[in-house]
Amino acid sequence: MTKPVAAPAAPFALFAQELINLGSMPSQRQLETVIEGKTLADVIALDSMGAVFTGSLERAIGAAINMALTDDCELAGKHWSESKHNESDALAKALRPLKTLCFTAWKTQRHTNPSTKWMRVGEYGYTLANPKITGDVIPEGEGGESAAAGTTSRTRDLYQRSVVESSKMYRALNSAENDATIKAHAKREQLQAFLMHLTKGLEALGAPLEDEELVAFVKTLS
């Protein structure tokens, strides 16, 4: 597999349209069909056009890093999102230039909180790499495989499904980057009320509410 950080850039407009055509919840494999042959910088560059996408560019960035670090993660025995900033093993060294590339681009694009954005990219990367855990499974027929052979969102443990799916919306509605959008939304009162219910729901499930702790908790559900 060609690592996206080493491949030549592709026409920007065509690449953007290909990602848009994938819809809102593409799998790792679906994203790979579009990202293959592109650079990580190509994917990050589209982030400044995020409003035109049905899906999340952060999801695509996570998929691109998954592609780039497949071998490194296998050797380390863990996903790159589990690598700590102060570690110096082979995986941490392989990850460092990719993380630097992301942060440099996001600061240039004037994103308000690159650290929170990076955390979300890591979560997307993890869920894409672990579809049986998260329920983000490949649709039946893709690649000649059936989703029925794995753990789908319908057959996954209901407790796990409740935490994973609730945490996604909770984090999105709590994100500082979405704050202005929510306040300007015509349904802002409904969104705020929904967030209150999500908060109570996660508490009832025994899930932590702090962002980093919640992400870590979701990963323990494997």
Number of helices: 12
Distance between the termini: 27 Å
Count of individual beta strands: 0
Structural class call reads: mainly alpha
Mean pLDDT: 79
Largest sheet: none
- Uncertain spans, ≥5 residues at pLDDT below 50? 5-10, 134-155
User: What is the CA-atom radius of gyration, in angstroms?
Assistant: 17 Å
Overall form:
globular
Q: What percent of the residues sit in helical stretches (DSSP H or I)?
A: 55-70%
H/E topology pattern? HHHHHHHHHHHH
Number of domains: 2
Q: What proportion strand?
A: under 5%
Notes on the structure:
The structure is a single chain. The protein has 222 residues and is mostly helical. The chain has two domains: 1-137, no CATH class; 157-222. It contains twelve helices and no strands. The chain has helices at residues 12-20, 28-35, 40-45, 57-68, 70-76, 90-108, 114-129, 131-134, 158-174, 176-184, 188-204, 211-219. α2 (28-35) crosses α4 (57-68), α9 packs across α11 (188-204) and α9 (158-174) packs antiparallel against α12. The longest helix is centred in the middle third of the chain and has 19 residues, at 90-108. The radius of gyration is 17 Å and the shape is globular. The two termini are 27 Å apart. Residues 5-10 and 134-155 have low confidence and may be disordered.
List the helices and strands and how they pair.
Layout: H1 12-20, H2 28-35, H3 40-45, H4 57-68, H5 70-76, H6 90-108, H7 114-129, H8 131-134, H9 158-174, H10 176-184, H11 188-204, H12 211-219
Helix pairs in contact: 2-4, 4-7, 9-11, 9-12
